[in-house]
């Protein structure tokens, strides 16, 4: 089992970069740099490429709406160049709150856009003259929509790799089916080993049935919180995770338009998901967090004594996870390092 981690730079990015180098030596296989509506991920990934040497570096995620497909491809090729072939392109549709509310771009046709972005990126990396006539992107721009001067171009530089891995963040059945069909990896959120098949089994099967064998097996990047602790400490750590689940299930979207709430329902928590959302949208965030079931929190996390965590790692493996992108529940860098070292021995 590979180990990954999303980097948190709240304490300062220089400190995060130094910690990343330590984590690499401890056995971390891949580090994800988030973007959302914070600092851009690209500048940080370039900096980390100079401070690390073996672990993969991934965007976690770049939104498909905020860069043109060819700029996304150029950026990925550039990051792969400065990292000596260690970059992984994490892509996702994000959501209307970020895409429309922060970027001012219409959130439409996420499936069509995702497919076309991936197709165009791979053409750019193969150094083909890019010609694309899709529903959402046309390259070159047709004469009746532009100056008429556009012509097919190819990337000037020779990329380090002509096939940079693409990991697609996806939750909804159609998005997950697309990930299983065209991406190298899939990044779900709140992966529940025993119930993942209820949420995504049919979608994964449908996508894999159309998958090009040259892509190889689909890598699955699950993201559990990690705390190796005595059983008596388990409630403390579950309570640390609970507000995060409540935020997504209750607050990431309006009623009827919340991907994460829908996921909780597919896991079988319809009544609980409705209550969490009602409380959260009414401003009762603490009560919403308290309403998140213990079973759900613990099932999507790796929290407990070492033997229990090892058993749960096997459950994730049996459910199809190939990389555990953990969130170490530690207060400081030395604590996170110790956790990763201990966890490495289990994987």
Automatic annotation (TrEMBL):
Main EC class the enzyme belongs to: oxidoreductase
PANTHER family: 5,10-METHYLENETETRAHYDROMETHANOPTERIN REDUCTASE, PTHR43244
Superkingdom classification of source: Bacteria
Gene3D superfamilies: Luciferase-like domain
Pfam family membership, one: Bac_luciferase
Luciferase-like domain span: 3-322
E.C. number: 1.-.-.-
Name of the protein in its database record: F420-dependent oxidoreductase-like protein
InterPro entries attached to this UniProt entry: F420-G6PD/mer, F420_OxRdatse_Rv3520c_pred, Luciferase-like_dom, Luciferase-like_sf
Keywords on record: Oxidoreductase
A molecular function (GO) term: oxidoreductase activity, acting on paired donors, with incorporation or reduction of molecular oxygen
NCBIfam families: F420_Rv3520c
Organism: Dietzia cinnamea
């Amino acid at each position: 089992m590979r180990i990954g981690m999303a980097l948190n730079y709240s304490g300062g990015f220089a400190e995060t970069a130094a910690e990343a180098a330590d984590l690499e030596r401890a056995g971390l296989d891949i580090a994800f740099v988030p973007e959302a509506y914070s600092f851009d991920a690209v500048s940080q990934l370039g900096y980390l490429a100079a401070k690390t040497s073996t672990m993969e570096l991934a965007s976690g995620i770049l939104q498909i709406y905020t860069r043109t497909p060819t700029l996304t491809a150029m950026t990925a090729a550039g990051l792969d160049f400065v990292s000596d072939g260690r970059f992984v392109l994490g892509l996702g549709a994000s959501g209307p709150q970020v895409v429309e509310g922060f970027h001012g771009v219409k959130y439409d046709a996420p499936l069509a856009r995702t497919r076309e972005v991936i197709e165009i990126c791979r053409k750019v990396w193969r150094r083909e003259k890019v010609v694309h006539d899709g529903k959402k992107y046309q390259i070159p721009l047709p004469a009746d929509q532009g100056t008429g001067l556009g012509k097919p171009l190819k990337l000037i530089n020779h990329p380090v790799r002509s096939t940079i891995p693409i990991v697609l963040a996806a939750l909804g059945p159609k998005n997950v089916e697309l990930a299983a069909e065209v991406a190298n990896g899939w990044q779900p959120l709140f992966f529940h080993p025993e119930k993942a098949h209820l949420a995504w089994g049919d979608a994964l099967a449908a996508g894999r049935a159309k998958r090009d064998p040259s892509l190889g097996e689909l890598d699955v990047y699950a993201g559990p919180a990690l705390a190796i602790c005595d059983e008596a400490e388990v409630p403390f750590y579950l309570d640390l995770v609970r507000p995060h689940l409540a935020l997504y299930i209750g607050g990431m979207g309006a009623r009827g338009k919340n991907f994460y709430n829908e996921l909780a329902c597919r896991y079988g928590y319809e009544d609980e998901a409705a209550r969490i959302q009602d409380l959260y949208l009414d401003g009762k965030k603490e009560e919403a967090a308290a309403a998140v079931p213990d079973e759900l929190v613990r099932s999507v996390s790796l929290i407990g004594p070492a033997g229990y965590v090892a058993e749960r790692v096997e459950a994730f493996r049996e459910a199809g996870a190939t990389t555990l992108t953990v969130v170490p529940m530690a207060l400081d860098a030395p604590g996170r390092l110790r956790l990763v070292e201990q966890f490495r021995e289990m994987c």
